[in-house]
Amino acid sequence: MELLAQERDRLLRSTTRVVGIVCALVSVVGVATSLAVPVLPLIAGFACIAAMVGALVAFGTNGSTWWTAVTVAGGLGAVTVLTAAVAPDDRGVIASALVPLAGGGLASLLMAQRGHRVGLVLAAGAGVVSLVLMSWASGTVLSAPVSGVLLGWVLIAVIAVWISRSIPRVARRIYSIGTAHRAERQASETEAQRRQGARLLHDTVLATLTLLAHSGVGVSEHAMREQAAEDARLLRHLRLGATPQPQQSGDYSLTRTEESPLGQTLESVKQRFGRMGLEVAWHGTGQVLLPKNVLDAFLLALGECLENVRRHAGVPEAHVTIVHDEAMVRAMVTDSGVGFELDTVSAERLGFKESVVNRLREVGGDARLFSAPGAGTTVVLEAPR
Q1: pTM of this prediction?
Q2: Are residues 245 and 266 in the same domain?
Q3: Segments in the chain forming alpha helices (H)
Q4: Cα distance between residue 102 and residue 113, in whole Å
Q5: What is the residue range of 241's domain?
Q6: Is 264 a domain residue?
Q7: Residue 192 lies in a domain
């Protein structure tokens, strides 16, 4: 929503710049073609308009209140110089030519003053002064130039309010549509994953269990052991986040390696938790080679930490930072969730101790936990290279 607010303000500043410059140029053409202003005052008035245009260009970039003040000064200065320099009989003509500048160029500042009280006061003051100058130039309060300037300020004010209120409504609508789309996509991916898992179990583990239920009739003991070992290996890869794709029904061959690149397997973990609704942001090291048993322990411990975030933290995102040196690989899992008091965790709860700490200690690593209520949780995992 913050990004949308920034885009809204940028749009309003750009609109102010375009409307202000166009209206100022229209007035320049009107004054120049009237041939009623002497040369020196004409040059001075056009210089004021040039300063106004330059300030509008700068205002469209950063929206500073200083540029609002320069725009107001330039516009009012041009109106004052050009109307005062002509004969009383010609002031009505010049006032009519300056209506676009006073009723459009200066009024456009209203559109981009959301949250800027000083800028809003300057813009409103410019409107009042413009009406006074037009009344003086035309000799009456009810003249056409005065009515034109007043109408311009009213229209710009209405447009400014409409844009300011419409953009947040559109932003909320876009956000709700995006949320619904993400929920639908996640549901579809979860259903597809469920079906794939059902087919996978049917083709492997359930087939082996069915064979065992029939006492392995027609299959040797050695073949049964090999089949069970293959099933166990497949399940271990799935536990680590792998998603094998069969070439044909029943063929889920996976390559055995003694060392695996950490970067590829981390991406599998990220995808697995993404399907379950937890976004995992990786930071730090890309590719690190680890021995097979260390990699398994490291990834299983990391997965358990992310599972704890998904279940207990109450936030949709976790950050994992991977660093390493010559002897050790470290992962820091952080979340901005509810946190908890470490002293209140019962010693009888062995999930973190067994699944994370002891698993890493068996391969020469370790794990440390830091948390506090309302301050999120951080877990530091270490595994030897």
Answers
A1: 0.45
A2: no
A3: 2-34, 39-62, 65-84, 91-97, 99-100, 117-138, 144-203, 205-213, 221-239, 262-275, 292-308, 351-352, 359-361
A4: 18
A5: 204-256
A6: yes
A7: no
Provide the residue count of the chain: 385
385 residues of the chain, pLDDT tens digit each: 566 667 777 778 888 888 888 888 888 888 888 887 888 888 888 898 888 888 888 887 877 888 888 888 888 888 888 888 887 777 778 888 888 888 888 888 877 776 677 877 888 788 888 888 888 877 777 778 888 888 888 888 888 778 777 777 777 787 788 888 888 887 787 777 677 666 666 656 666 676 666 665 555 666 667 767 777 777 776 666 555 554 444 444 433 334 455 555 677 777 777 777 788 888 876 566 778 788 888 888 888 888 888 888 888 899 988 888 888 888 899 999 888 887 766 545 556 787 788 888 888 899 998 988 888 899 999 988 8
Same domain membership, residue 119 and residue 236: no
Q: Which of 256, 280, 295 is the last residue of a domain?
A: 256
Tokens at residue 178, please? 């995006």
Same domain, 323 and 378: yes
Residue 145's CB: how many other CB atoms inside 10 A? 27
